[in-house]
């Protein structure tokens, strides 16, 4: 028997540490021959602590909301060959880890299959394929389910152009927000002529309400490492850097430990898998400035300079870290590489919409019943996220809007929930997909105050280099404060509108260019709420 306690940050925040220790103590005291492991998060954060239990020949069962005092009963059941069904959330009979297929067992008709649980409705786990199922601290578990097979294949084939063509054909778009074609970006770096090239993983996740990357790293660090080694080989880089925000200590710890294990196994270093390829990774902790998620600011931060953006061109692919050609991809982009290598671009494009293939992981948070990480095919309607997966408004309240894309995104009203979640459709509404934050607002939320919150955030995170963003956001916050405090006038509204467009059109970097989005979308879709505030001030 195996017991695995979900111990990502969300699990430990809900008491998984005491659950783990209760299992360890009881197994030891009773002298039971059971394997106890730590895993990451299976995604349903609202039901943490999650515990996986497995008896040979039976399905894997995921238990929910497990507390330390549930442990004796669970062990009683397992010790007598029964599955503890009382706390069961779902069962898994077989699982496709992309590079390895696992059959657990069949039976237990009283427990729903994982995809029959409303929270998992329509979810397809490509990026999250291993999260919550394997022990992130053990490279052996990753290898046992087929990990590093994609790297092996790429090194044996020794045909980088073929891999780039596959990534291009997959139409994989950067998952950090901009949605640029990954294969084309890779081709730029491959063609760059330089003795030294760098690849970087941008794990500086900073949007309020977004924690996809944190969970992915905490739960499955080797998929990220494998994607980056493949990227290094294909693009001709010998050094890779993982830029991870220091506020993610568990992710930093697990990633550092995984890098060390990969090095010990000959997967990093001078002669990877005996194929003569040299590549190594180092992790750098970012100090938590939101603007350092912008590529040029991130590069300056890595160089030891103040994390302030610089104008483009030149682009990092020509003149990046220390002046060398550099490729930067988001965490989630790297997670898609091994599956594309193993299953091919045709398989990848079967999922998603015509222009946005594959899946995207979202952190669904706010005023919904079911919160957690949701991996959906791109092009899924917004209403599926909110009502089917999210289970509708918490405490029976009516949902009013969803904010996508964090402080760079916008608010989408309930009347537009038929909108498909992909790069183009969200852009048409004045929002963006961003890195995947999805914050649900209900009838109790004041949308003007929501816009004010996001402007306060970007105002405090602006690096101050250019006037439109530095001064413009300061003035925007001034007008929004006046309006929400009941002092606003029609003139304030008009000035805020003009100012927002000016900031969007003239700021130097993406932070300033997108910062007005929450205000502009709120003005567009919730103008009456501004008018209510202004009328009340008369
Ligand atoms: Fe700095 Fe804002 Fe200008 Fe970007 S737009 S360079 S964050 S001041």
**CATH architecture descriptor name of the largest domain:** 3-Layer(aba) Sandwich
Average pLDDT for all residues: 95
**In what order do the strands lie side by side in the largest sheet?**
2-1-3-4-5
Number of domains: 4
**Between the first and last Cα atoms, what is the distance in angstroms?**
70 Å
What count of helical segments does DSSP give?
A: 22
Q: Tell me the number of strands.
A: 16
- Helix share bin: 40-55%
CATH superfamily of the largest domain: NADH-ubiquinone oxidoreductase 51kDa subunit
Question: Brief description of this entry?
Answer:
The protein has 538 residues and is of the alpha/beta class. 41% of the residues lie in helices and 16% in strands. It folds into 4 domains: 2-119, Glutaredoxin; 147-345, Rossmann fold, CATH 3.40.50.11540; 359-442, Ubiquitin-like (UB roll); 447-537, NADH-ubiquinone oxidoreductase 51kDa subunit, iron-sulphur binding domain (de novo design (two linked rop proteins)).
Helix-strand layout with pairing:
Elements: E1 2-6, H1 9-13, H2 16-30, E2 35-39, E3 51-54, E4 60-63, H3 71-79, E5 88-92, E6 94-96, E7 101-103, H4 139-144, H5 149-157, H6 160-170, H7 182-191, E8 198-203, H8 212-219, H9 221-235, E9 239-245, H10 249-264, E10 280-286, H11 295-302, E11 326-330, H12 331-335, H13 337-343, H14 345-349, E12 359-366, E13 372-377, H15 382-389, E14 399-404, E15 410-413, H16 423-428, E16 437-442, H17 447-461, H18 467-484, H19 490-506, H20 510-514, H21 517-525, H22 527-537
Parallel strand pairs: 1-2, 8-9, 8-11, 9-10, 12-16
Antiparallel strand pairs: 1-3, 3-4, 4-5, 6-7, 12-13, 14-15, 14-16
Helix pairs in contact: 5-9, 5-13, 6-7, 8-10, 17-18, 17-21, 18-19, 19-21
The chain binds iron/sulfur cluster (SF4).
């Amino acid at each position: 028997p195996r017991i695995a306690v979900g111990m990502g940050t969300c699990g430990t925040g809900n008491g998984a540490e005491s659950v783990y220790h209760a299992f360890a103590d009881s197994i030891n005291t009773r002298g039971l021959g059971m394997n106890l492991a730590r895993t990451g998060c299976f995604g349903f954060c609202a039901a943490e602590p999650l515990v996986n239990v497995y008896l040979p020949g039976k399905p894997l069962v995921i238990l929910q909301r497990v507390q330390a005092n549930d442990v004796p009963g669970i062990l009683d059941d397992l010790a007598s060959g029964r599955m503890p069904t009382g706390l069961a959330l779902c069962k898994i009979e077989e699982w496709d880890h992309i590079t390895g297929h696992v059959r657990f067992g069949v039976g237990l008709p009283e427990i729903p299959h994982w995809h029959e649980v409303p929270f998992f409705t329509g979810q397809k786990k490509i990026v999250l394929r291993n999260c919550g199922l394997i022990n992130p601290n053990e490279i052996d578990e990753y290898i046992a389910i087929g990990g590093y097979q994609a790297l092996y294949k790429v090194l044996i084939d020794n045909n980088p152009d073929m891999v780039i063509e596959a990534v291009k054909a997959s139409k994989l778009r950067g998952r950090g927000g901009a949605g640029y074609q990954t294969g084309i970006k890779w081709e730029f770096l491959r063609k760059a002529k330089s003795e030294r090239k760098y690849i970087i993983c941008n794990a500086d996740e900073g949007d309020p309400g977004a924690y996809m990357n944190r969970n992915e790293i905490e739960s499955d660090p080797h998929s990220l490492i494998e994607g980056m080694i493949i990227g290094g080989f294909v693009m001709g880089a010998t050094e890779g850097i993982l830029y991870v925000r220091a506020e993610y200590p568990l992710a930093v710890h697990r990633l550092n430990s995984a890098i060390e294990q990969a090095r010990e196994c000959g997967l990093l270093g001078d002669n990877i898998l005996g194929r003569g390829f040299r590549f190594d990774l180092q992790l750098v902790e970012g100090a938590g400035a939101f603007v350092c998620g912008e590529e040029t600011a991130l590069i300056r931060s890595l160089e030891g300079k103040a994390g302030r953006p610089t104008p483009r061109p030149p682009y990092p692919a020509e003149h990046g870290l220390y002046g060398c050609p550099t490729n930067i991809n988001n965490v989630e982009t790297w997670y898609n590489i091994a599956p594309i290598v193993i299953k091919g671009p045709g398989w990848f494009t079967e999922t998603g919409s015509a222009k946005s293939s594959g899946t995207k992981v979202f952190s669904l948070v706010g005023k919904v019943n079911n919160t957690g990480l949701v991996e959906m095919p791109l092009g899924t309607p917004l209403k599926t996220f909110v009502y089917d997966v999210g289970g509708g408004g918490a405490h029976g309240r009516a949902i009013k809007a969803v904010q996508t894309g964090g402080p760079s995104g916008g608010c989408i009203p309930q009347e537009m929930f038929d909108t498909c979640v992909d790069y183009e459709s969200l852009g048409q509404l004045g929002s963006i997909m961003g890195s995947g934050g999805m914050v649900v607002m209900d009838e109790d939320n004041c949308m003007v105050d929501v816009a004010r919150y996001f402007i306060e955030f970007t105002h405090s995170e602006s690096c101050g280099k250019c006037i439109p963003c530095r001064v413009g956001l300061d003035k925007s916050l001034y007008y929004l404060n006046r309006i929400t405090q009941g002092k606003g006038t029609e003139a304030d509204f008009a000035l805020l509108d003009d100012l927002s467009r000016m900031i969007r059109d003239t700021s130097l970097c993406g932070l300033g260019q997108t910062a007005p989005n929450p205000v502009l979308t709120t003005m567009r879709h919730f103008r009456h709420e501004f008018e209510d505030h202004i009328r009340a001030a008369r």
